[in-house]
Amino acid sequence: MAADGVLLEAVRQGDNTAFEELFTRYYPRVYGVLLRVVRTPEDAEEIAHDVFMRLYERPLDYVTDGALAGWLYRTALNAGFNALRSRKRRSGWLRKAAMFQRAEPAFDTGPAAVVERNEEIERVRQALTQIPEKQRNALVLRSHGLQYNEIAAALDISSSSIGTTLARGERALRRQLENEVHFS
Amino acid sequence: MKLGRWFNRNCLSDGELRSLIDNGVNGPPGFDLHLRSCSQCRERMEYVAGNQEFVASRLELLASDDHRPVDLSRAQYRIRSRIGQSVPMSSSIQGESFVSTMWKFRAARGAVAMLALLLLTTAFVATPMRSLADDLFNRFRIEKFEAITVNMEQFTEFGLGIALQAMTADQERLMTAFDGLAEFETTFDKEDPHSNATELGSPGDAQAVFGDFRAPDSLPAGFSETPRILVTEAGSATLTVDTAAANTIINELGLPIYSLPEASEAPEMVFEIDVSQALIMHYEAGSDGHIAVVQMESPTLTTPDSLDMNALREDILMLPGLPTDLVAQLRSIENWESTLVIPVPEGAVTSDVSIDGEPGLLLEAGEFDGSDWGIEFELEGDASVVMWHDDGNLYIVAGSVSGSDILDVANSLN
């Protein structure tokens, strides 16, 4: 299997086959992480494709082991959270509407439970957008099962700092979720 | 914690404690013993572990309920089409419509508006119409029609590229710029377009109001030979573009368009289209058969002096991600100074035809599904339209008949 750096050099020379090999290697991982950030598989797919197009148009100059995966994760997460932030402004009234819906008597607990769960998911996603970028990305990548060295590559920090970043991120996210003013 | 470590070098930091939780080991030598004796470390460990459990339970909610495996072959197919490799495009891709996909993001609404503007501009710019006799190089007239086929799948990819740029742009700045981008004014009644038309009682009345006109000598079987005749008023429409807002949008979206003037040089760019009176003859066959014959002087488009339309055309044709076959079609247009480009969906039949010796364009749409274009419109059965230019006038004949029938009507005009 060719190294990422070799394939990237080929991409710079116009080799689309090399690009496709990189795409095949990393697309499922990037798509999987994005599924945690954005609301639908369609959104995750679109953003993942755009991330790879950015790589295609401007291949990284030099990569060490894990650096490309790190760049892809970082770029994808930032694009995904940017999409979330922009959607938050738009969907304020929708969230309020959901609140009214929840306040009505629930004769059928099934749909109400779904609404409540979706609302909680939305709260978590929006809370993530409120904490520092590195902490947020570390939490998502860790919950997706990445090891410390992989997270370090994505955040461009040392592996020994990951514990601290996670601890701070968890503290910040918990505060955000416990202290936030609902639907303000 | 730092204070604790200062007092006892065996204490671990929150970060180190957090790593111990994930790595499931006992920590550095002697730490177990230290933990039993150090209440500070025990408290910190419980605090860090409590946060970890709380957050893990919340982030677990984000794991998608959609457990379908990644459709890698579909993803590869799409990425190949985006990087311009030749792949067989087929309708098997289950994509959403361009508009509905773009509408998912607030900022993308702006991008759609920009894209629509770009498309219109492309039509204008790829329509570098011949300058009039008065040598005003910023006044153009339509003298010819040409169809370009737009592959919506590829065009969607182009649009999403801009949408992604829009998502990473400064949202408030971008939306403010869109809000102040342009003002549209027209002498026509936008609410009720029909109010611009006056029905006339006879061909004599039409000649008195409109002047000389052409009428068909023959119609397909079943059509009444006496048409309804309407004359629309002349009018104009003006689009005033705020140059600063346009430049802001271009910068925020990272579009390589350099041909717009600076706002200090030209605060506004005014585009004006002047439309003359038009005569419409409407023939019917029962309740479902329609043929309309429209004739008018060729409309005039005036573009701002401050804008180099040739340079803008080049900028647009060079936009990264614009489908290569679309660019090729636009570049292949001869006499672009006098050609109005008409985008048509894949599947529509277009033909270059000759009407009384003048080149024309025939469009035939046996069936049309507007959902591919993000619009709710479906067409079943025959429908065709032919358009051409002759001696300063535009002629359009359209109806619910076949292409050959519509050509017969067009060729019988005198």
Q: In total, how many beta strands of chain A? A: 0
| Biggest sheet, spatial arrangement of strands of chain B | 4-5-8-9-17-16-13-12
Structural class of chain B: alpha+beta
Structural Rg of chain A: 19 Å
Count the domains of chain A: 1
Largest sheet of chain B: 8 strands, antiparallel
Oligomer: heterodimer
Q: Tally the helices of chain A: what do you get?
A: 9
Question: Can you offer a commentary on this structure?
Answer:
- The complex is a heterodimer of chains A (184) and B (414).
- Chain A has 184 residues and is mainly alpha-helical.
- Chain A contains nine helices and no strands.
- Chain A has one domain (4-179).
- The termini of chain A are far apart.
- By secondary structure, chain B is α+β, with helices and mostly antiparallel strands.
- Chain B folds into two domains: 2-60, no CATH class; 100-411, no CATH class.
- Chain B has helices at residues 2-7, 14-23, 31-37, 39-60, 72-82, 98-102, 106-125, 152-168, 171-179, 203-210, 243-253, 309-317, 324-331, 403-411, and strands at 139-141, 144-150, 182-186, 197-200, 228-232, 235-242, 268-275, 278-285, 289-297, 300-302, 339-345, 349-355, 358-364, 368-369, 378-379, 384-390, 393-399.
- In chain B, strand 8 and strand 9 form a beta hairpin.
- At the A-B interface, helix 2, helix 3, helix 4, helix 6 and helix 7 of A face helix 2, helix 4, helix 5 and helix 8 of B.
Please summarize what this structure is:
The complex is a heterodimer of chains A (184) and B (414). Chain A has helices spanning 4-12, 16-37, 41-57, 67-90, 92-103, 109-128, 133-143, 148-155, 162-179.
Tell me the layout of helices and strands.
The complex is a heterodimer of chains A (184) and B (414).
Chain A: H1 4-12, H2 16-37, H3 41-57, H4 67-90, H5 92-103, H6 109-128, H7 133-143, H8 148-155, H9 162-179
Helix pairs in contact in A: 1-2, 2-3, 2-4, 3-4, 4-8, 7-8, 7-9
Chain B: H1 2-7, H2 14-23, H3 31-37, H4 39-60, H5 72-82, H6 98-102, H7 106-125, E1 139-141, E2 144-150, H8 152-168, H9 171-179, E3 182-186, E4 197-200, H10 203-210, E5 228-232, E6 235-242, H11 243-253, E7 268-275, E8 278-285, E9 289-297, E10 300-302, H12 309-317, H13 324-331, E11 339-345, E12 349-355, E13 358-364, E14 368-369, E15 378-379, E16 384-390, E17 393-399, H14 403-411
Parallel strand pairs in B: 2-11
Antiparallel strand pairs in B: 1-10, 3-6, 4-5, 5-8, 6-7, 7-10, 8-9, 9-17, 12-13, 13-16, 14-15, 16-17
Helix pairs in contact in B: 2-4, 7-8, 7-9, 7-12, 9-11
